[in-house]
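sorry for the late reply, my laptop died twice this morning and i had to redo everyting from scratch. anyway the thing you sent over, i finally got around to it. pasting the sequence first so we're on the same page, its 291 residues, then the predicted structure underneath. double check i copied it right bc i was rushing
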Amino acid sequence: MPHLPKSNLAPAENRLDFSAPVPGAIDELPPPQRGEHTSDNILLANPEALPLRDLSAIVRRGGSTHRHRVVIVAPHPDDETLGCGGAISLLCNNYDVRVLVISDGTLSHPNSQKYPAPILQSIREGETITALAILGIKPEAITFLRLKDGSVPTLTSFNFLHVKIRCQDYLKAALPDTIFIPWRFDPHADHRATWQLIQAAILSLGIAPQTIEYPIWDWDTQQQQQRTDLVEIAGWRLDIATVLEQKCQAIAAYRSQLGQLIDDDPSGFCLTAELLANFKRPWEVYFEEIL
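ok and here's the structure:
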């Protein structure tokens, strides 16, 4: 997760023309219902009040002739563990789980002389492989797209189509039944751009995976924003109490983001204890669009 400058704060843009496709109800649970959406137009105003669910909220049973396929999309190396580490650990033993990391994460310490971008990229990828191994993911299930950190293309970027096709090719091969992507209105521009890329790729392929969005920077109360367009968004919590220890161990693998490795860039990024506390709860928060 790179440093988040003020320029990355989400603008009050209107909802994009394309929206996250959500399939029909899973066997065990009804689709998200009105009344489960966030209150006061704040994404995480009262997360403890969101309904608590188990793995059946993710894995649709019945009618499938293949092993359930899950893709976790991370804007930066560490977002997958912070936002979805518990889900990954719960899923990986019995389901086909893959991880796609979009950017190289090299803007976290741009002024380091000891760790210039190529070295930092290698370090961050190594941290990701270590963290995901703790959660049960093998290296061959991890793909690094290696886009430039801080420059993940948006709909209006000149290279959006090229990168969208790369994402499209990945999803065509993976064919996920469920896909985790960053929250569409995350305060970080790379997170919003990742949502746009994956949604565009999904639409181009004509597939309809269960699409689950996860918040990262909205946990920072300084950056939480009121929105008027959350009425169609339902939130819920996934119970990860049984794998919380593994998730915390995986988070600890990201030494470069915890201030434990790079000592020559005083302005470099470091996850604060306050922010980390939100990712060490016995549940994770997810959002889906209401049908």
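The chain has six helices and eight strands.
thats about all i looked at so far, will dig more tmrw
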